[in-house]
Design goal:
By secondary structure, the chain is mostly beta strands. The protein has strands at 7-10, 16-20, 23-28, 34-36, 40-45, 50-52, 58-59, 64-68, 73-74, 79-80, 86-97, 104-111, 121-127, 136-147, 154-160, 164-166, 174-183. The strands form 4 sheets. Strands 5, 6, 8, 11, 14, 16 and 17 form a 7-stranded antiparallel β-sheet that branches. The protein has a 4-stranded antiparallel β-sheet with strand order 1-2-3-4, with no helix packed on it. A 4-stranded antiparallel β-sheet has the order 7-15-12-13, with no helix packed on it.
């Protein structure tokens, strides 16, 4: 290109590197695998015993950042603020330990809001007429969430009709993920 900041480079080890604005955008390695630079996050928690009070909407705390290709995770706020605008596939699993069976469990990924109701969330609710929900791992609301790449953030919240302990065991772990699937 005219200003020299975009290129395609082929190395002697059969690797092809595509650059734009002097930044590697994608690599094809010698095994013919395409290695794009895609924002991806996964955080997890095991055996941290976070308390959940009955009937409250509680933000989940995560102990381990397994991967964060954008450095968008805030350990202080337990939230993800991706710096690339687009649609993110989000989801995960929450581990609950209840002292007795409960009637409902709610998990959600909230965008820019801490309330338990609203359109800016992906929510799963396990609801029964009587107390039959037991200890176990429950899916976090899963789907696509549009993020603006600057100020939008996402957080995981949980609720149940009785108290519980989150991340009560080392296995299976609780985890939350977000992956860019379409930039805007």
């Amino acid at each position: 290109d005219s200003d020299g900041d975009s290129s395609i480079q082929a190395s002697t080890d059969d690797t092809v590197i595509f650059k734009t604005n002097n930044t590697t955008a994608m690599t094809i390695n010698s095994s013919s695998l395409i290695l794009p630079k895609i924002p991806i996050l996964q955080v997890s928690a095991t055996n941290t015993d976070q308390s959940l009070s009955a009937g409250t909407n509680t933000k989940v705390q995560w102990e381990t950042v397994e991967i964060d290709s954008l450095s968008g995770w805030s350990t202080a706020n337990n939230r993800y603020t991706p710096t690339v605008a687009g649609y993110y596939l989000v989801g995960g699993v929450m581990r609950f330990n209840f002292p007795s069976d409960v009637a409902y469990v709610i998990t959600s990924v909230n965008k820019n809001v801490s309330s338990s109701e609203g359109v800016n969330m992906l929510r799963n609710q396990f609801n029964h007429g009587s107390d039959i929900v037991d200890n176990g791992s429950y899916p976090i609301g899963t789907g696509l969430m549009e993020m603006n790449g600057t100020s939008d953030y996402m957080e995981v919240y949980v609720s149940a009709d009785e108290s519980a302990t989150l991340h009560d065991a080392s296995s299976p772990k609780s985890f939350f993920f977000a992956k860019l699937v379409h930039a805007t």
